[in-house]
């Protein structure tokens, strides 16, 4: 649960810019554009387990990311600084809060929370898990300990839960992963008794959205897959943000999000 008063919208906007969660971000323009090209070419690593109905070209992906995340829309801007619009971040947080509140308002809500980013934004997922449990939700933890092949190399990794947040582990280390296979395995274990809502990122979110589960997620400016999924109505809400600043910098964002959920309940 939050321990400090939530920021106002204007205070959060300034905080996002000051900490580079949004505004002038650390992710380079070159990195963003490289990932947009990769997605347009159908590289599974950037598709997060999603399939798309439309033929998304590189220019299409760039235009969508400018609209949804606020990256610079000029295709001739190929190097240097790129941006995330903090207003878009906050608008998406408000939309995410509405979806979470709707799930929590239902009878016996069942929520699954997962992250492929066990630094940075994992702290948001942990706080949301505690909040949802405190509001009476059942936090689903299927397939705990299951070993799965990951990354296409035959390497076995284990699904674990930290305070009801699913992660992927390799021995004693938590793994940054885009892989949809962990969520696919989790949903298969649940069968027809799946969650009312998934809160996730990367392949955890993509696989859930592809399976038709109500999914909200977080994504960096160099991870266009969830934004394309949202444009095709497979992901309910995607929040644009830098997903790997110091974990403590997400405290204000988390407090704002939880306060918005509370106001929508």
TrEMBL record:
Q: What is this protein called?
A: Phosphatase
């Amino acid at each position: 649960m939050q321990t400090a008063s939530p920021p106002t919208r204007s205070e959060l906007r300034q905080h996002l810019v000051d900490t580079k969660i949004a505004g002038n971000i650390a992710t380079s323009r070159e990195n963003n554009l490289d990932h947009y090209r990769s997605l347009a070419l159908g590289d599974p690593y950037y598709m997060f387990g999603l399939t798309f109905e439309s033929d998304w070209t590189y220019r299409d992906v760039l235009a969508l990311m400018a609209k949804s995340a606020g990256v610079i829309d000029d295709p001739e801007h190929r190097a240097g600084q790129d941006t995330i619009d903090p207003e878009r971040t906050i608008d998406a947080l408000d939309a995410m809060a509405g979806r979470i509140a709707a799930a929590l308002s239902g009878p016996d809500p069942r929520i699954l929370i997962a992250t492929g980013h066990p630094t940075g934004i994992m702290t948001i997922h942990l706080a949301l898990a505690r909040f949802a449990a405190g509001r009476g939700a059942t936090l689903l933890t299927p397939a705990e300990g299951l070993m799965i092949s990951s990354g296409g190399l035959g390497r076995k990794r284990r699904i674990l839960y930290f305070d009801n947040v699913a992660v992927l582990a390799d021995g004693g280390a938590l793994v940054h992963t885009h892989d949809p296979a962990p969520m696919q395995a989790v949903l298969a274990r649940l069968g027809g008794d799946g969650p009312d809502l998934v809160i996730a990122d990367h392949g955890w979110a993509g696989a859930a959205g592809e399976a038709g589960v109500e999914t909200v997620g977080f994504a960096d400016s160099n991870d266009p897959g969830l934004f394309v999924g949202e444009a095709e109505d497979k992901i309910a809400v995607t929040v644009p943000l830098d997903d790997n600043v110091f974990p403590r910098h997400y405290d204000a964002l988390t407090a704002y999000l939880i306060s918005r959920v509370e106001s929508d309940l």
